[in-house]
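Write out the 3D structure for:
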Amino acid sequence: DEVLAVGDVEFQKKCLGKMQDVSTKEGRTVLFVSHNMEAMRSLCTNAILLWRGQVAENGNPEKIIASYLCQEAPAEGLINFKPNQNSPLNFLSLCVTQAGKTITGIDPCQPFDIELSYEVFAKVENLEVGLRISNARGVPITTAHTKIGPENGKNASMDLGKYNARVSIPPLFLMPDTYTLTAAAFQYNRTIFDQRDNVLQFRVLEIGTNVAKYGRSAEIGVVLNRFPWTHSRMCAG
């Protein structure tokens, strides 16, 4: 995993290609230890999840990846954070709400909100906050991003205090699946004040969407849609 992390794209392709050749053409077993979900998915036919020094699960890579991403993400719809030391900004909590209630099971036909509260302990300029939604296979679906400053050529700063940020997700956007949230507060290309990876889990329920009859929604896509279609007759049969 460390070798892949430091190499450029071409080097990574060579490494991955060599591992595939060794396992498929030479008939040998390759033990690949990684936090790279896409590499695990493409290379491995079997996966093992280690948890606190013990084998927690053993089986299909897709299932193991989903368990890995969700193992520390509570499914209560709300998580309160312990503060990071020596940071001018700390996250306080993260939650998923729908119709004003904290919830874990989302109705895909209705909008829902993701709320992030944080506290500023010292002056912070050019703050950016992002929330990334990833699916159960570790694929980032989208990142909701907001920026505070600069405005009119001047740096915008945050006063000391507690803040609440909310992003609204429109209906018929996420495919029925399990998702995790990552939150980050930072100055672009300078400082990460707080970052919490895959810390909260929620599920978009299948309650009769237009893909329900097809069964495996993961093979259809990662977002729902109701794009308008038009049909016209080109010529007589």
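The helical segments are 2-6, 9-24, 37-43, 61-70.
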